[in-house]
Amino acid sequence: MSVNVFRGRSLTVIEDLSIEERRYFFKKVRQLKDAILANDEATLDLFRIDDPDFGIYEVFLEDSTRTKESFRNAAKFHHAKVSELMCSSSSINKGESYADTFNMLSGYSNTIFIVRSKVEGLCRYLDEESAEYTRRNSLPVKPAFINAGDGKHEHPTQELLDEFTFLEDNGMDFSSLHLALVGDLYHGRTVHSKADGLKVFDHVKVDLIAPPELAMPDSYVEKMKENGFEVRAFSSIEEYLECGDIATKWYFTRPQLERMGERILQKQDELRKSITFRREFMDRLKEGTKFYHPLPRHKEHPTIPTFLDNTSLNAWERQAINGMYCRIVLLSLIAGRIGEDYDGPVREKRNIGDEEYIVSVDLSKRSKEVKNYSEGVHPIDNGIVIDHICKGDSPSEIRAHMRLISSVLGIDEGRGGEWISRGADGQYKGIIFRPGDYELGRKDLKRLAAIAPKCTLNIIKDGKVTEKYRTHIPPRIYNFDDLCCTNDACISHPSQGEGVSPSFERTPDGHFACVYCGKFHTYKEIWKRRG
Ligand code: NCD
């Protein structure tokens, strides 16, 4: 019997499913929807979990109508055990950690959790954390976690239903997509999931329509470009309509007032105007245009006005209905009821590499390089010299970063000093020299590479450089006490109090993405600042 690769899998971000897995998913949704419309009970039974003891648990720590209710109705389709945590009266309010709360619930025969929260990366963390609990307590299965929206981060099941609806309107054709994203692209997690989600289409063109205050964060734009999408940006619908090459699929998102600061809220009318569709725009749309929206829309200030409800533009209602079909299929896959016939690749993993990033330099050819230490370094008999720090940055940036390096490496108490020099190429670089007895182990070198990539470390004994290392940018940075994600909504941020150890992975453009919330950082930004 073949293995079902979907069984027990969590969906924390859209990339947790490979492109081929998502395409398989869409075909299954098509099948299910056709069976529902045709009342074909025999086919529907093939999808049904049909087990009153199979526990599906909804935990919504943030408001929801569609996501929560479509999941609940999907779970009922399966004749499964459906529960909901009453969050406002749970022990989370007594200071219990998420790990303790969810582990406990999984002990009560619950196999799939559907979780919405303001805390970004919560499901990814719970997925890791629950493995140990399951083992410790000999539970028959490790639970799976479905992210039903985490802060401003992702909303992978919305992404699946959005794409299914685009595909429905494309005749299930994956070859290309031209999509306009209109609205609050800064706070909207549904549009953030599109940066990886739209990869299921071979050729993608995305038009971003938002005033600067609500613009798509750079890290998602960067990701879209890395994924080969053509990306254009416009500050209003009016400006977009002037460009001549407008999409036939428009995806609107609501201005998320609840996530905005005072400064932006003061300008809400003006901002809303630039992303609200108006009657006078109607005849400038292309034939066959469809509007989509994850909903809700605001009753007094809808960006898709209600006079459009009865027009052929309206795809948002069918999109919301598709939500339940998509969620029925997702539950069926994770429960292992369907999916055994899938034989494609599993989960797209970013190839971040695992090359050696601390390289020992052959000292037999070093004579030329030693001469370079002319600025106060040579007199050291015993000690360390870290050279080529932050090459190319400004002197003040280099100085600030050298202070951080000293404190992170724990060498700030010793003798010696810091130096900034300017090379023949006109670029500045930093040098830290510390006379004294320093024993740097592998962990210290890793720490050095993480905080000062592209530097050299010289270990000097009896006036001679006895060891020399060059550091490169590490593929992963984790397991250091003084790391910190800069996003205070991230599960790993100290203010969340969950004790989650921060972890970062290198992106193709040399940033470090937090593995939980996805936020991009430079190597300088991922360290706790002291004092
Ligand atoms: C969205 C959400 O919660 O992210 N709604 C949804 O799930 N259908 C969008 C929103 O809140 O505006």
Q: Can you characterise this structure?
A:
The protein is an alpha/beta fold. It has 16 helices and 19 strands. It has helices at 19-37, 41-47, 66-77, 98-106, 122-136, 156-168, 189-192, 194-197, 218-226, 237-241, 262-265, 268-274, 316-334, 367-370, 395-409, 442-451; strands at residues 55-60, 81-84, 112-117, 144-150, 176-183, 203-209, 230-234, 249-253, 290-292, 358-360, 383-389, 417-422, 428-435, 456-461, 464-471, 476-478, 503-506, 512-514, 520-521. The strands form four sheets. Strands 10-15-14-11-13-12 form a six-stranded antiparallel sheet, with helices on one face. Strands 7-6-5-8-9 form a five-stranded parallel sheet. Strand 18 and strand 19 form a beta hairpin. It is globular and about 85 Å long. The protein starts with 18 loop residues before the first helix and ends in a 10-residue tail after the last strand. Bound molecules: N-carbamoyl-L-aspartate. N-carbamoyl-L-aspartate is lined by residues 66-67, 149, 155, 158, 189-190, 253-254, 256, 294-295. Residues 177-333 form the Aspartate/ornithine carbamoyltransferase Asp/Orn-binding domain. Keywords: Metal-binding, Pyrimidine biosynthesis, Transferase, Zinc.
Which molecules other than protein and nucleic acid are bound?
A: N-carbamoyl-L-aspartate
State the major sheet.
6 strands, antiparallel
The overall pLDDT average reads: 93
- Please give the alpha-carbon distance between the first and last residues: 60 Å
Radius of gyration: 27 Å
Strand content: 15-25%
Number of helices: 16
Number of strands: 19
Low-confidence stretches: 368-375
Shape: globular
- Give helix % range: 25-40%
Structural class: alpha/beta
Strand order of the largest sheet: 10-15-14-11-13-12
